[in-house]
Amino acid sequence: MVGFKATDVPPTATVKFLGAGTATCIADLITFPLDTAKVRLQIQGERQGPVQAVASAQYRGVLGTILTMVRTEGPRSLYKGLVAGLQRQMSFASIRIGLYDSVKQFYTKGSEHAGIGSHLLAGSTTGALAVAVAQPTDVVKVRFQAHAQAGGGRRYQSTIEAYKTIAREEGFRGLWKGVTSPNVARNAVVNCAELVTYDLIKDTLLKANLMTGSCPPFSDWVPGTW
Q: Where does it localize (predicted)?
């Protein structure tokens, strides 16, 4: 763009969209075993009474759950559903984070001075839209994570087969199980709490000249070029 340095050109909506998805995919690769352990702990004893569930608990604590899964199902069990998990991040995070600025500009009609109402509307919109779009990937991810395979067969042979099987056996709406008004509202509120709070704090710091709106050129960080 004429009149702009390379570091002054603002990222496009596509760059923000892909950047948000890529960053969360990298984070998911690192934290996925913790998410799998969380799912196993959540569903443990779901078909038993509270007393029987406590007495027959197979998993105890996050670390205990991870160690038990590695011992009984192998280390790869910690990454069951990873493909669907990465698909979820590319759709869910890309929308709720990557499109936040674009939606905010839509509500403010391009004005640089966005009120808190515009921030809240943008956060609510991208949060609700993200969960509505990405729910099938979350359903498949949790199905893989919840399935214990200690000596048993695999429930689904692949991620694509899982989508097809759920749609065939439970109907197309089976892929959107869990998309209820409370769930959509929850994600809208959570997105507001995360992104709007960040955005408002950043704007406050910029107005107080406590930070700049962009990073210095990469060469400034390379030894020998200071």
A: Membrane
